[in-house]
Amino acid sequence: MPSENKPAIAQGQKSKPEPAIVVSHVSMLFKRAKDEATSVKELLVRAVRGQNHYEMFKALDDINLTIQKGEVVGIIGTNGSGKSTLLKIISGALIPTRGKVLVDRKSVQLLTLGTGFDPELTGRENVYLNGAIIGYPKSFIDQKYRAIVQFAELEGFMEEKVRNYSSGMVSRLGFAIATIRDTPEILILDEVLSVGDMFFRQKSEARIREMIHGGSTVLMVSHSTSVIQANCSRAVWIEKGRLRADGNPKEVCRAYETLKEM
Ligand SMILES: Nc1ncnc2c1ncn2[C@@H]1O[C@H](COP(=O)(O)OP(=O)(O)OP(=O)(O)O)[C@@H](O)[C@H]1O
Predict the structure, then answer these.
(1) Would you say the CB of residue 77 lies under 6 angstroms from ligand 1?
(2) Strand partners, 29
(3) Which residues contact 88 (CB under 8 A, 6 or more apart)?
(4) pLDDT digit string (tens) for 47-82?
(5) From first to last of its 262 residues, what are the pLDDT tens digits of the chain?
(6) Can you say whether residue 122 is alpha, beta or left, with left for phi > 0 and alpha for psi between -120 and 50 degrees?
(7) Which of 36, 83, 243 most suits a substitution to test ligand 1, by most atoms within 8 Å of the C-beta?
(8) What's the pLDDT at 14?
(9) Domain-by-domain residue ranges, the chain?
């Protein structure tokens, strides 16, 4: 017998898809220096004299987006168009100046690389530091430590200071830490697919593909239109803070590439 609170779905009638993320009229303003100082000294002198002038810069302008559960959405756009800002707002790391986002924050994981490493600490210490920043409990890192080092291919280097690592080694470690947990319901990937050399890239792409196709809702930023077309069911193009196109990945990527060639 149908529950009294939930109306029964009539035969042949489809249930409505449920949104995982709703971005409603989101705008983001940043304060920017009008004429940048060329040194810290100049900045301080100007601050003392009250000569630092700022202007407001609109990084996102009235963005509206509804993403259904299970969709894999790729975000493209030229440098500085506002992609990372949008991902940070959705994951809760930034609060928009205007508008709102409806999302279950507990189900969201934002994956970015290169943040939260201290070059003066060893690889081992950085695994714990970076893991803590992502939100892993220490017991979880203890349990996964070996797997992280193995995936990053850094056996024998973990007691070295990270300042002696190559940039590829740092990104491999960052990637291994960030992807060691079980796939969350909503996965947000900010340019994590161009890490390391060709061999590590194949391995990391395979890991991301597993996460993407595990049934999660995925939002991913990539500068590679082929990555977007190979993995996404929908593409969104953001240009100069505005939503320029939203739809079939092939069509949106083609329109974007045409603009870049002009
Ligand atoms: N905290 C901040 N303060 C001031 N300006 C910012 C801040 N964060 C981002 N911006 C500016 O907002 C704009 C959008 O930045 P964002 O990082 O979202 O772009 P993006 O599309 O991700 O760029 P990229 O492809 O180069 O990574 C840029 O002009 C950037 O300089």
Answers:
(1) yes
(2) 58
(3) 94, 110
(4) 787 777 778 899 999 999 999 999 999 999 999 999
(5) 334 444 444 444 556 678 999 999 999 999 887 766 678 787 788 778 777 777 889 999 999 999 999 999 999 999 999 999 999 999 898 999 999 999 998 888 887 776 678 999 999 999 999 888 888 899 999 999 999 999 999 999 999 999 999 988 988 898 899 888 888 889 888 887 766 778 888 888 888 888 877 888 999 998 889 889 988 999 999 999 999 999 999 999 999 999 877 6
(6) beta
(7) 83
(8) 54
(9) 19-104+185-261, 116-183
Which residue has the CA at smallest separation from atom 29 of ligand 1? 80
Ligand 1: nearest atom to the Cα of 60:
14
Q: Residue 153 half-sphere exposure, CB side, CA atoms within 13 Å?
A: 12
Distance 87 CA to ligand 1 centre (A): 11
- Residue 81 Cβ inside 6 Å of ligand 1? The answer reads yes
Question: CATH: 3.40.50.1000, 3.40.50.300, 3.40.140.80, 1.10.1740.10. Which one for 19-104+185-261?
Answer: 3.40.50.300
| CA of residue 154 to ligand 1 center, whole Å | 32
**For 16-43, b where at least 16 C-beta lie within 10 A, e where not — what string?**
eeebbbebeebbbeeeeeeeeeeeeeee
Q: What is the predicted ipTM?
A: 0.96
Give which of 215, 222, 228, 221 is closest to 186, Cα–Cα.
Answer: 215
Q: Which two tokens stand for residue 257?
A: 């590439």
- Give the C-alpha separation, 156 to 69, whole Å: 42
